[in-house]
Amino acid sequence: MKLTTQTDYALRTLMFLATRSSRANVRDIATLFGISVNHVAKVVNLLAREGYILSTRGVGGGIELAKPAEEISVGQVVAAMETDMHLLSCVGSDDSCVIHSFCKLKGVLAEAERVQREYLDGVTLADVVPTRRQLNRVQ
């Protein structure tokens, strides 16, 4: 599985926010990672809709994690951001190939996907977040 840029930016945004004790803003994240403010804003909207971050408008506003980093599963974030996590299309359907009724590869790939999801579900944001000091060094 190759993750989309959107998922990459979502994970980076969450990691950034996990290092902060106060609200941050989209521009801070975009600047640190050298990515477009518009892309980060789009990801922030998705993360807010999914309940991973809180977004407050106006003076003193900004974005912050909606729950502790220990309660955010990397696998759940990936699943929320990705539209198709299958290694091949046949794993997600029964009729994408002429040999689907007897193909053993489909089962192997389905098991690989299950193991991958299980692993990622067991990793929390807290497990992967850099220290604030590490992030400050790249600025």
TrEMBL record:
The keyword DNA-binding applies. The keyword Kinase does not apply. Transmembrane segments: none annotated. This is HTH-type transcriptional repressor NsrR. It comes from the Bacteria. Keywords: DNA-binding. Coiled coil: none annotated. Pfam families: Rrf2. GO terms for cellular component: cytosol. GO terms for molecular function: DNA binding; DNA-binding transcription factor activity. InterPro entries: TR_Rrf2-type_CS (IPR030489), Tscrpt_reg_Rrf2 (IPR000944), WH-like_DNA-bd_sf (IPR036388), WH_DNA-bd_sf (IPR036390). The gene is nsrR.
